[in-house]
Structure formats: C-alpha cells, structure tokens
Amino acid sequence: MRIALPLKGKASQIFAGPVFDAEKQSAIIPIRHMKFDFEAEKIDPKFYLNAELASAYFASLSIFLTYGEDLVIDTARYHRDFLTDPVLKQRVTSLIGQEALHSKLHEELNDTFKQVDLPVGIFRYLAEIVFDYGFNRLPQPMKLSLMAGIEHFTAVLSEYMMNHEEIFFDSQDEKQRAIWMWHMLEESEHKDIAYDVFQSLSNNYALRIAGFFPALITILLLISVASVFVPFYRKPSNLVSLSYWKDVPRSFGLLFGLKRGVYGSSWMHIFDYLRPSFHPNDYDTSAFLDYYKERLLHPETGVLTPYFTKEFTPVLKS
C-alpha cells in the first residue's frame, strides 16, 4: 500500500494534461449567421473532387454531424454553469452559438439531400439510435470528454481542408462549397474551447482518452460504412456501373490515403490527442484563419458574402 500510493501519484503527474491557463486562452469569437437557401437541382452528388463515394461520405457526415453538434451544445451549456473564468464562459457561449447555427444549416442541407434521393431519413433514424440510446445517456463527465473528442476530429478535418483549398473549387456547387468553408473556418476558430472546458473542470487523462475512441469509431468507421450505401440508394445502377467501381479506389484514397487522404494523411494529428501534454493549439492555424477570414468574409469579394446576414460577439460578463 505504501509503495502503491507514490506510484499512483507519479502516474497521475505523468498522465496529467496541461492545466488550463486563463491568461493564455484564445479570444472570444463571433457568432455568424448565414442564409444559404439550398436548391435541390443544384446539388452536385460528386461535390468532393468528382468522386461519388468520397462525396457520399461528406453527405453522410453532414447528416450525422447535426447530432454530434447537438450533443456539444447540450454538454457545453450544462458545464458552462460550473466555470469560474468569465472569458472561458463567454467563449463557451460563442461555441454554443456557432454549433447551433451549424446544426440548423446542415439540417437545411440534409433536407435538400433528401430531395435528391439520399437516405437522409434512414441515417437520421440510425443516428437517433446511436445518440438517444448511447451517447446522450452517458454521465456528464463522459459527455464532456466526448465533446472534446468530437471537437478534436472536426479540428483535424478543418486543418486538412484549410491546407487544400482547391478541394472546394473543383465543383460548381457554390452553396455546398460555402457551407463547408464556413463550417471549416468556425471549427478551427473554436477548436480549443471544448478542450479548455475539459481541462478546467476535469484534466483527467484517462477520461479524456475514453471520449476519444467513441468519436474515432463514429467518424472514421460508422459514417464511412454508412456512406458506402449512399451511391446505390441514390442511383441503383451504380451496382453494375464499371465507371463507378473503377473510381472507388480513388475515393478511398481521397479519404484514407496516407499521402493525400483527409484522415490517412492526418493520422499523426489524430492520434497526437493521446499524448498527455496535448493541446489543440499545439497546431497553430492562426495564419490560415487570417487568410480565410479575408478570403471568405471580405465585404466585396468574400466567398461567403452573398450568404452572410449578420454577426455578433457575446458580451463579456464578469
């Protein structure tokens, strides 16, 4: 027993994450309102680099993301009341506002996907089972960890997209381009908020890792498996289409290839989350954010300018 206690103390020191430092936290971010008015006839089923299966993955991700965002919103709102730092509290308010708009506008996109014969109803049913009978029933500490894990994966995805701007301009579907670029920008803006909340209230390494794996399985495995059925549901002739099957390896490479795949080339970033001293801001995307704020939000030439309606920044409350 006397030996075990020092060992336990040493292990807790080794595996403790970085302590939340209020002086080093990021600034409060704005909540931006967009209006896309998606049109079914303009939806490109090969939006992602003219690859049908890879595009089906992102359509499926859009559907499942809304449930993940709702979990983030509910979890952040619950834990906000336990925070004592006023800046972190207001950053959480910004996180909630941004995620609420992401969820709302992706639901509008998903409703449009339904009009072009994507299995939106089926995927919503499956997502409700996963979340209502699984994730949403977890105890609050585990939901806090899962929130941080989900936000890690969206941060990884956002950084990849910001490094590969050409992806968005391969298709003429301007509104899918706009929603994903807007989402990418804001996920990168708030990538550290959920983690800072976790570190502020818990800082338990084992618990943090416990939330990583359900996010990993859902985003990389379950959504990938679900997306395989999308091209056949939308267009049954793909089952016997030689051109479709020839393009499947390319789609797989675009997602999981080690050289240029979204997740395959990001595997070190993904699993760096397991490092005890990890923090999202170890990956500095400030230059990307400066570039994309100008690229997307310039009053005259911004990609998002035609869809932008308003923004506001939550007032800091002491």
Write structural notes for this entry.
- The structure is a single chain.
- 60% of the residues lie in helices and 3% in strands.
- It contains twelve helices and two strands, in the order H-E-H-H-H-H-H-H-H-H-H-H-H-E.
- A two-stranded antiparallel sheet has the order 1-2.
- The radius of gyration is 20 Å and the shape is globular.
- The mean pLDDT is 93.
Kindly list the characteristics that best describe this protein:
12 helices, 318 residues, two-stranded antiparallel sheet, 3% strand, globular, single chain
Topology, pairings included?
Layout: H1 4-14, E1 31-34, H2 52-80, H3 86-115, H4 120-132, H5 140-163, H6 174-189, H7 193-201, H8 205-227, H9 230-234, H10 242-256, H11 267-271, H12 286-297, E2 308-312
Antiparallel strand pairs: 1-2
> Order of SSEs, N→C?
HEHHHHHHHHHHHE
**Helical content band:** 55-70%
State the end-to-end distance.
46 Å
**Beta-strand proportion:** under 5%
Q: Summarize the biggest pleated sheet.
A: 2 strands, antiparallel
Based on CA atoms alone, the radius of gyration comes out at 20 Å
Can you give me a brief rundown of this structure?
The protein is mainly alpha-helical and 318 residues long.
